[in-house]
Amino acid sequence: MKNTALVLIDLQNDYFNSIQGAKWPLHKTEEAAANALKILNKCRDSDIKIVHVRHEFAMDNPPFFAPNSDGAKIHESLTPKNDEEQVLKNNVNSFKDTNLKEILDSSNIENVIIVGAMSYMCIDAVTRAASDFGYNCYVAHDACTTSNVEFNGVKVDATLAHATIMSALQFAYANVHTTDEILDLI
């Protein structure tokens, strides 16, 4: 795929079950990160633009991703290289109050591959926004992760929450594929 960028969203230590002291571990983060790494490595080998997005909460006593904390660091398995773009965000939508769109537009990006966390928050927000901006979106569903959710007394397992969001994104906003299918497209 020409004019493509990989956008890795919030694959930070506080989301990993394997990190002692992680403040917000998600469902199967390690598996999602391993798949994200496969895509990252293929993009590096294919000279595709790479953008790492990292979240820090701009508030007192955040539940996770506290500024300058170990939990807010990108997981070591996905450490950005010097020539890879990095975006710091303080909102759910990676485009809001950041230079993400400028980074993509300055490289004439038409296609974005999206991986990361959380499916029902930041992945959903960035994919919908990217689609609204006119980018062709490709989400690797098995390189994304989320958590259990609850609303109005209804508890939803992480796998169902993830499937619901992926279904909605596939319906109108993105091409939703497996990691292997994304690797074949690259």
The CATH architecture can be given as 3-Layer(aba) Sandwich
User: What radius of gyration results from the CA coordinates?
Assistant: 15 Å
Order of helices and strands: EHEEHEHEEEHEH
CATH topology: Rossmann fold
List key phrases describing it:
186 residues, alpha/beta, Rossmann fold, six-stranded parallel beta sheet, two-stranded antiparallel sheet, 5 helices, 32% helix
Please outline the helices and strands.
Elements: E1 4-9, H1 29-45, E2 49-55, E3 85-89, H2 100-106, E4 111-117, H3 119-132, E5 136-145, E6 149-151, E7 154-156, H4 158-172, E8 175-177, H5 179-185
Parallel strand pairs: 1-2, 1-4, 2-3, 4-5, 5-8
Antiparallel strand pairs: 6-7
Helix pairs in contact: 3-4
GO molecular function, one term: hydrolase activity
Keywords: Hydrolase
Protein name: Cysteine hydrolase
